[in-house]
Amino acid sequence: MGTPETITMEGITPGQEFGEVVFGPLEKVDFVRYAGASGDFNPIHTDESYARRTGAPTVFAMGMLPAGYLAHAVTDWFGGPQNLRRFKVRFTTRVWPGDELVCRAHVVSIEDGIVKTTLEVHRRGSGPEGLDLPAEEMAIVAEADVELPE
Amino acid sequence: MAESHLTFELPVERGKVREFALSVGEDNPVFFDVDAARAQGLPDIVAPPTFTVTQIWQISREQREAQLGANLDYERVLHGEQEFVYQRLPFAGEILRGTMRISKDFTKQGKRGGEMRFVTYESRFVDVQGEDVLTAYYTLIETAKDVG
């Protein structure tokens, strides 16, 4: 198990990039595990026949699953979860079984002791048959503010 | 109009924290190992940053609609955004309490015509002393009705 390395303000400059860190590929059972852990039992994420009846080719991830992986990446890059002050995600496309999650961060500025970052998660994979998805596309656009020791 | 809100309680339990941490691939011992958390000056293992999203799923859509009354057409609703603002992370063993209310509700023109509606639910979590712990913003998007 990994304790993130200690990081201080001195180690950070605007324009700095973190990543890419890749998680996955996600499997359907990961959606089931997240359903149980989070309490999100919308069957569109776990029940294949239900998903098909809604017009989707198969189940897809609840947005908060890749968002949770992104929070994991951010807190590892920036010294642990205790340093996080704000985390905001916007979902831009669905994440499918077999997709990898590619996480990146970009330091925008340092203001009043707070490191402001923008983040991205790309889904990378062939996607379900018949959808003809790009091999990689943005799934989450996000921001995180982190407070680091001097 | 009196502002509608609902109240909730979220016990932060070690087992649920570990289960949630595993579900997002965490491997930092601060989420799993009480001794490791205490060695960092924390009272117990901490909840991952997105853990409090579990609060949303403890309130049924029907109850939320009955008490907060957004009147959304759930055939057209997507989870569009989620934000958390932290004073600190919750730790296992505490019971958070809070209130949930609609903090934003607006429409804008969709790219393919029709109106999209954005409804944001704000959940404010406080600890047993009444101190703020974090605030979460859950934004649903009601997509435009099919124009074609």
Radius of gyration of chain A: 17 Å
Total of domains of chain B: 1
The helix fraction of chain A, in percent, is 10-25%
The overall average pLDDT of chain B, rounded, is: 94
Figure out the total of helices of chain B: 4
Structural class estimated from helices and strands of chain B = alpha+beta
The CATH topology of chain B is given as: Thiol Ester Dehydrase, Chain A
CATH topology of the domain at 12-27 and 60-147 in chain A: Thiol Ester Dehydrase, Chain A
User: Order of SSEs of chain B, N→C?
Assistant: EHHHHEEEE
Q: What is the end-to-end distance of chain B?
A: 37 Å
Measured by DSSP, the beta-strand proportion of chain B falls in: 35-45%
Number of continuous helical runs of chain A: 3
Can you tell me the CATH class of the domain at 12-27 and 60-147 in chain A?
Alpha Beta
Lay out the secondary structure.
The complex is a heterodimer of chains A (about 150) and B (about 150).
Chain A lengths: L16 E7 L4 H11 L9 H6 L10 H14 L6 E8 L8 E12 L2 E11 L11 E12 L3
Antiparallel strand pairs in A: 1-3, 2-5, 3-4, 4-5
Chain B lengths: L5 E6 L2 H10 L10 H6 L14 H4 L3 H8 L8 E10 L8 E15 L5 E12 L5 E11 L6
Antiparallel strand pairs in B: 1-3, 2-5, 3-4, 4-5
